[in-house]
Design brief:
mainly beta; 198 residues; 8-stranded antiparallel beta sheet; globular; 44% strand
Length: 198
């Protein structure tokens, strides 16, 4: 699998946590005033990559559901919407096939609808299918190990689950669990901002 950018280092970096309706000035991006849902985190200018993280909270995969999130005020840099599986932290999640790791086999039977649109109704991306058909990587956690994440890479014929937010634009992220799996764990809905000095 492609060696992607998603290696967020949380352990040694200064972290500034920004909740809704908070503003601060950053010399690289000007005033960052995130007023949407969830918890916005800036790991600071010393972050080598994936400087920003937006945590929109957890969703249960063992029951059908619909969730909607407002995203507004992110810095203008590339973000990837990803689903982080809430499994115990590990150092050996395989990237090649879920069959090599039994805890990930639920992804074949869990079906999701994921869509991002702006306030004008323009759809930036849309995905409808099994969780296992998304691209998979790992994200380092505060505990030092890794948890698997799912997202969709941009391809020539289709947009991935990444976007660059525009100043003063409001976005709506819609997530539906259309086919649940009783053995599935929760997922965390996150957006990873790929700014950094590397």
């Amino acid at each position: 699998m492609k060696n992607l950018f998603l290696t967020a280092i949380f352990l040694t970096l200064p972290i500034l946590s920004i909740t809704s309706c908070s503003a601060f000035y950053n010399k690289d991006y000007g005033e960052i005033n995130y007023t949407g849902d969830g918890k916005f985190i800036d790991k600071g200018r010393d972050a080598s990559r994936d400087r920003f993280l937006l945590d929109l909270g957890q969703v249960e995969l063992n029951q059908k559901s619909k969730s909607s999130y407002t995203i507004k005020g992110l810095p203008e840099t590339s973000f990837t919407i990803a689903l982080q599986v809430d499994l115990p932290v590990s150092n050996n999640f395989p990237l090649e096939s879920p069959t090599l790791y039994p805890s990930l086999q639920f992804t074949n039977e869990t079906v999701l609808f994921l869509e991002l649109e702006d306030m004008d109704g323009k759809k930036l991306f849309s995905y409808n299918g099994p969780l296992s058909k998304l691209d998979r990587n790992v994200l380092q956690t505060t505990e030092g190990g890794y948890k698997p994440i799912y997202y969709l890479e941009r391809q020539a014929a289709a947009a991935g689950t990444n976007f660059t937010p525009k100043n003063k634009m409001t976005y709506r992220l819609n997530l539906s669990v259309t086919k649940a799996n009783q053995s599935a764990p929760r997922i965390n809905v996150i957006a990873i901002g790929h700014s950094g000095w590397k």
